[in-house]
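Need residues for this backbone.
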């Protein structure tokens, strides 16, 4: 797996590998490798370690094929949320004996923030009294997106973005992307390795993201009239405004780091951006929210 992780995360995962106990919450930005890390942790915990070099054991081969029997993945299916019915099916599965006599049965709740209240409460009972040799890993963008009762019963591990140099090197070494292009793709991916890999392997997606990154840069240099025209163009094109907000935040952070934006201006811009995000979450009309942002940027 192509995992580019912060050293603190690698250390935490190493500790779990040696002494797995309880339930965990992996949280952090999108595309940073939380779900992949959960899969890799489950594989490591169940590796039989009795095979010749370069030849996977039975368990590792099953993980690679997606057929490992003691791995349960729960995520939204035909609805945008994880339902109580899905958790109940998980309870039924856990009432059965694990397929293997040794190892750690692992339940990964992907997009755990999408659980309904009833689903979260049903999961809470499992977290309070987990079956033997069973590990729960919840994956979510933020810890605050889960109920306090769920958070209190999981050990949180925050996945920060790796350095841009790490992501750029990944694109250069494993995907044969030229250095200058790797830097552009890393910026367009807001430093998230998963997103950067997608852009490196999908030219159409890369073109859209690079254009959106350019628009985010323009938003900080245009006049107010120019920004309003930009808002109209973005909404007419049904642009991904949540991603646009991430790109704009990265541009402001870069300007702060390079001392090209004064602190009062940066504070005002970040406050306007946060308000924009709240409005998007509250389902305010995209053009209204974006035009307000463009008028408030300094």
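Answer:
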């Amino acid at each position: 797996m192509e995992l580019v992780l912060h050293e603190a995360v690698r250390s935490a995962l190493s500790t779990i590998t040696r002494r797995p106990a309880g339930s965990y919450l992996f949280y952090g930005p999108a595309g940073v490798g939380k779900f992949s890390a959960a899969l890799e942790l489950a594989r490591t915990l169940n590796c039989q370690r009795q095979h010749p070099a370069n030849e996977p054991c039975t368990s590792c081969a099953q993980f690679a094929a997606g057929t490992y029997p003691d791995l349960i993945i729960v995520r939204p299916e035909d609805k945008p949320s994880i339902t109580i019915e899905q958790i109940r099916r998980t309870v039924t599965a856990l009432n059965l004996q694990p397929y293997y006599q040794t190892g750690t049965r692992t339940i990964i709740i992907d997009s755990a923030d999408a659980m309904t209240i009833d689903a979260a409460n049903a999961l809470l009972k499992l977290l309070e009294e987990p079956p033997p040799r069973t590990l729960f890993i919840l994956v979510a963008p933020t810890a605050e997106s889960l109920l306090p009762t769920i958070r209190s019963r999981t050990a949180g591990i925050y996945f920060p973005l790796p350095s841009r140099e790490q992501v750029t090197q990944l694109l250069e070494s494993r995907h044969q992307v030229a250095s200058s292009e790797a830097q552009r793709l890393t910026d367009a991916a807001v430093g998230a390795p998963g997103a950067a890999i997608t852009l490196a392997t999908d030219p159409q997606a890369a073109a859209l993201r690079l254009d959106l990154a350019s628009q985010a840069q323009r938003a900080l240099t245009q006049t107010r009239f120019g920004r309003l025209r930009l808002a109209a163009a973005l909404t007419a094109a049904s642009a991904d405004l949540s991603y646009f907000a991430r790109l704009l935040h990265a541009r402001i952070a870069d300007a702060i780091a390079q001392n090209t934006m004064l602190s009062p201006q940066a504070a005002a811009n970040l406050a306007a951006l946060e308000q924009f995000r709240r409005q998007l979450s509250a389902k305010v009309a995209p053009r209204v929210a974006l035009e307000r942002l463009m008028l408030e940027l300094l």
